[in-house]
Amino acid sequence: MGFFYGTHQALYDINLKIPEKSVMALIGPSGCGKSTYLRSLNRMNDIIEGSRVTGEVLLDGQDVYAADVDVVSLRKRVGMVFQKSTPFPKSIFDNVVFGPRIAGQRQRAELAELAERCLRQAALWNEVKDRLRDSALALSGGQQQRLCIARSLATNPEVLLMDEPASALDPASTARIEDLIDELKLNYTIVIVTHNMQQAARISEQTAFFCHGRLVEVGSTKQIFQNPLQKETEDYITGRFG
Predict the structure, then answer these.
(1) E strand or H helix at 51
(2) 161 lies in a domain?
(3) What average pLDDT does range 122-129 have in this prediction?
(4) Domain range spanning residue 213?
(5) Among 16, 188, 194, 242, which residue's CB has the most CB atoms within a 10 Å radius?
(6) In a domain, 193, yes or no
(7) Phi and psi, residue 205, nearest 5°
């Protein structure tokens, strides 16, 4: 696939197969296209005027850019967690069940069960179970990010996209997020953009290295970090540029 912002081409001939129920890390210098690629997977770039995609992005064999694809349904299947935590100015409970409510789910007992399940999956339930009616904005930064993950899980996605989900967090909160990703990959396919190469080495099975809008190399994380095939990859990993 390729991607354009107006006349500017941001991605060139990206051909990347993402394994199911595992973690794929996207690494590379700032401005190399990894976040653009991540957002293209659930059409988050559609909101940018003048943007366009060439080629295909296949999910279960279907091109997500086909004319008959419902973007709302796509984003339920492919959830997203952003670099900066984005809780809504609502209660913790209302944040988690926001998506299902929009989709028409109204049964109180079902919503309560869903909220508990997703907060447990996000390793947050024990910290907030007695204050579900409190504002989500009162949570710490790390808790807010885990709440955003719980909110993404509430639509029952198949894929979770994470754009540097721990870059604004302290080391303890970062460790919680990494432990959470390790648990979630048992049930979800996760694609994560990270500038932190140690983090990529810790949490991913596969790593893809992007540079200047191109996919330079992809392979097992161990191979990419210990025996990269491309000199460009080796230079980046060893700190010679980036």
Answers:
(1) strand 51-54
(2) yes
(3) 96
(4) 2-88+157-237
(5) 194
(6) yes
(7) -90, -35
Q: What is the pLDDT of residues 132-171, one digit of tens each?
A: 999 999 999 999 999 999 999 999 999 999 999 999 899 9
As given in the structure block, the two tokens for residue 152 are 């993404």
Domains: count for the chain: 1
Distance, CA of 242 to CA of 96 (rounded, Å): 37
In a domain, 134, yes or no: no
Q: Which residue has the tokens 């390790």?
A: 182
Tokens found for residue 5 = 């912002």
CA distances from 38 to 44, 83, 99, 230 (A): 9, 12, 21, 22
Read off the CATH number of the domain in which 30 is found.
Answer: 3.40.50.300
Q: What is the CB neighbour count within 10 angstroms for residue 215?
A: 21
Arithmetic mean of pLDDT, 53-64: 95
**Region 60-87 average pLDDT:** 94
